Amino acid sequence: MTQIYLYQNEFVAKEALHISPEDRGYYFGDGLYEVIRVYNGKLYEAGPHFARLTRTAEALRIPLPFTEDELSAQLEKLIQVNELHEGSVYMQITRGAAPRSHPFPASAEPILMAYTTSYQRPVATLEEGITAVTTDDIRWLRCDLKTLNLLPNVMAKQHAMDQGAGDVIFHRSGTVTESSSSNVMIVKNNVIKTHPANNLILHGITRLVVLRLAKQEGIQLEEAAFTVDELLNADEVFITSTTAEVTPVIQIDGKAIGSGKPGPLTRQLQTAFEATIPSK
Question: Which of 116, 228, 249, 280 is exposed most, by the fewest CB atoms within 10 A?
């Protein structure tokens, strides 16, 4: 089956899609993106994703070429034409094409591109957990914006892969922030702690869902900074993201977390999260 992309307001075969070499996303990473999970052919938590997209676009001063309702309808059609059942929709908006120059171009038109990817839930890692390593967080100070500038994340993820770990956990001078593409939560004495949603982390949509679920489940939770030492001595650690869902972290920097197996609060939240997945 030919993969169909959404490009501006048109649905185009992947092979027929051409991006201008003057697109500012190519030159400068001058753009933003979102990844929305699709379960049983349905967008999951689309509203918060659209809200974050709008917030990032406003901060970057990129005018969105659509309304939320228009975008939602287009993405739903994209899911249908690609016959996507399980997977995700990736979309990005760049400032547009213009001769290379740092200032905003006067007349560039923002460019929307989106496509679907098919994959199943990460059952093995959800069940068994992953290992991680820590590294310095050298990213810029607006990590709350979901921009295309991901080279530090890419380098950090490869650093983890080179050491045989599943992911990397960032820290700034010993204060844990997040992972390469997920938020990080620890459990100590039945209390969950996660970094506040400020400019140092991305305000994850799955993070938002987990905070809501923790409250519903009666689990005590603190949005407060914690250290690498607290991370390594936690009873449980898990990461949250659109693709990782609620994934246990069982070892960090070679040290077992808790019993070295996924913990009870992690399991409780996994079960609660599964209950939010839309049915067929």
Answer: 280
Whole-number average pLDDT of the chain: 97
Please tell me whether residue 211 adopts helix, strand or coil conformation.
Answer: helix
Angle between the N-to-C axes of helices 205-216 and 264-274, in degrees from 0 to 180, rounded to the nearest 10: 110
What's the pLDDT at 279?
A: 85
Q: Residue 278: enclosing H or E segment and its boundaries?
A: none
Beta strand ranges found along the chain (DSSP E)? 4-7, 10-13, 31-39, 42-43, 87-94, 111-118, 130-136, 167-172, 175-179, 183-188, 191-194, 220-223, 236-241, 245-252, 255-256
Provide the token pair at 100: 């290379």
What token pair was written down for 189? 């004495």
Whole-number pLDDT of residue 222: 98
Q: Are the C-beta atoms of residues 148 and 200 closer than 8 Å to each other?
A: no
Angle of the 205-216 helix axis to the 46-60 helix axis, nearest 10? 130
- Evaluate whether 90 touches 35 at the Cβ level (below 8 Å): yes
3-state SS class at 75:
helix
The proportion of the chain whose per-residue pLDDT surpasses 70, expressed as a percent, equals 100
pLDDT of residue 83 exceeding 80: yes
Active-site positions read 146
Q: Which two tokens stand for residue 33?
A: 């993106």
Compute the chain's Rg from CA coordinates. 19
Mean pLDDT of 258-262: 97
